[in-house]
Specification:
about 280 residues; alpha/beta; Rossmann fold; 11 helices; 10 strands
Length: about 280
């Protein structure tokens, strides 16, 4: 049986802030995810800066063009830090948040920050740095990632009612294992599965897996509407949960970006927090 107490120890939650546009939502989700748990928080700007890494002439030209529209690295960092300062000032009893500025190679810095974290929180990207950081978090860290929606919400709740997208396999199992601190405290867990033509129903494997964890869950077959599985999953999850937990990228990201896939649809359309983890 999973412990539902604070004996789990201190969790380390790292809010990755590659862009100002999603920084507030990311911070709100990070703090909401830590509610009721013993947590140490950090907020880290991860942004590309050609001064701190070697780049090609083409990349230099691209960054110069980017500076025209978004401002240079120093200006982008200042905007993100201003969002953090305003967020802390707006809180009645703000948690201690350690600030770091990691400029240079985004992938290397995301991986470095992941070694200190139990949960990485990052927004749905709108700019290049953010897309690179999210890719690194999902593909190169082997950590649970909480993807924050783009829209900010001051009274965000995460983990009270958790929806889980279930498909038997290592991807879902690893994500669920990493999310046990939240699952063990949830008031309600709803497991959603979609039928696949020619395959055995997934409810049997779900029932056995969650029983082995000692978790009380409701298992539902996902009602299909003719849309993609990802869109149907988002719609149902919004009705039963304040967040959605799934595995991520059963195929390579390039494959899913071309041919589509559940993870691709979730990341493209979600306006609720997504707990995700890739198994390999």
């Amino acid at each position: 049986m999973i412990e539902k107490s604070d004996s789990l120890g201190t969790l380390h939650i790292c809010a990755l802030l590659p862009e100002a546009e999603t920084a507030l939502s990311t911070l709100q989700c990070a703090v909401a995810a830590g509610h009721g748990l013993a947590v140490e928080f950090c907020a880290v700007h991860v942004g590309f800066d050609p001064k701190h890494t070697q780049v090609s002439a083409e990349e230099t030209d691209l960054q110069q063009l980017r500076d025209i529209f978004e401002g240079g690295p120093e200006a982008r960092t200042a905007r993100i830090k201003a969002v953090l300062d305003a967020f802390v000032a707006s809180q009645h009893n703000p948690p201690a948040i350690d600030w770091r500025n990691d400029e240079g190679d985004i992938d290397a810095n995301v991986v470095l920050e992941s070694t200190r974290a139990d949960l990485l929180v990052i927004g749905r990207p709108t700019h290049m740095d953010a897309a690179d950081a999210l890719h690194s978090a999902l593909f190169h860290t082997r950590r649970l990632v909480l993807v924050a929606p783009r829209g900010a919400c001051a009274d965000r709740t995460i983990g009270r009612r958790i929806a889980i997208g279930w498909k038997p396999g290592k991807s879902a199992e690893r994500a669920i294992a990493a999310a046990l601190p939240w699952l063990g405290r949830a008031e309600r867990i709803t497991v959603l599965w979609a039928a696949k033509a020619g395959a055995e129903p997934y409810d049997v494997s779900a029932r056995a897996f969650f029983a082995g964890l000692g978790l009380d869950v409701e298992i539902r077959r996902l009602e299909r509407t003719g849309k993609s599985v990802g869109l149907d999953l988002l719609a149902e999850a919004a009705l039963v949960g304040d967040c959605l937990l799934t595995g991520a990228y059963g195929h390579a990201a390039l494959w899913e970006s071309i041919f589509g896939g559940v993870t691709h649809d979730l990341l493209a359309h979600a306006d609720m927090p997504l707990f995700m983890m890739r198994s390999r």
